[in-house]
Amino acid sequence: MKYVVSSWGNGISVALIGPPEEVRSDANLAHNLFNASFKSDFMNGRINFPGLRTFYRFLIYKHALPYMDECACSLRPAMVGTKAELKAHRIEKRNFMREYQSSRSVYQIGSHNDGDFGYYYED
Questions:
Q1: Residue 90: enclosing H or E segment and its boundaries?
Q2: Angle at the Cα of 99 from the Cα atoms of 90 and 62, rounded to 5 degrees
Q3: What is the pLDDT of residues 1-55, one digit of tens each?
Q4: Model-level pTM?
Q5: How far apart are CA 43 and CA 4, in angstroms?
């Protein structure tokens, strides 16, 4: 799995590059642990975190929680046991959100009207 980190607003946005099932599992874990939002609009998806420290905590928990379940140990031995897996991740820091924001198509003003133009529902 490869992660591309970009600053975005008050936090960071992390683009995920990997198989779809691993991307979905990362998105679910990040949402369950940190209430991080997942968007599928760029690369294989992106997760918004409050900061870089929260992203690193997410990576630790991603590997340590299954290890804790297998070995019936606490968090510290699990972190030591999964240190090699943590170092195997490729983390690239690139400000891709500015590129993405500038390359998106601009919405045409006036394309949405609030009047009744053939719709079968009431306003």
A1: strand 90-93
A2: 30
A3: 899 999 888 899 999 998 999 999 999 999 999 999 999 887 889 999 999 999 9
A4: 0.75
A5: 10
